[in-house]
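Take a look at this chain, tokens included, and explain the fold to me:
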Amino acid sequence: MRWQLTTCFIAMAVGFSYGLYQLSYEVQALEGELAGINREIEDNKQSIEILKAEWAYQNRPDTIQELTAKYLPLLLVAPYQVATFKDLPDRKMAPEVLEALDNPVPRRKPRFEWVYENEEEGTPSYTLASYGGNSVLQGQVK
């Protein structure tokens, strides 16, 4: 019985040792992969800093002015190129559009309304009243 128990404990110790051995190599491989990813992150950060510097260089006013002069030659506008609205031809509209323009557009109710009071003295006074009944502004019409 002792012999079987000792053999079982030795087999378990060998199994655990082998498992820990495999685990340590797996951890080393993952650490190497992590180090590679961190190097890539640092390279990308450095590339971003370089791109920001290039962007700042390209956005200088003198550089933009040179590029616009080279690729966007702006010419002066001649007087005959300017037209008024009267010079434009009339557009023909579809009957559906004309019918839609004839229909009234529903409006929302105003939040305030003018309430006129005391028109007897020649200068009527007014009150800007909200729908809640609170008087907001009072004065005289000039």
Summary: The beta strands are 112-117, 125-130, 135-140. The CA atoms of residues 118 and 124 lie 5 Å apart. The chain has two domains: 2-71, 111-142.
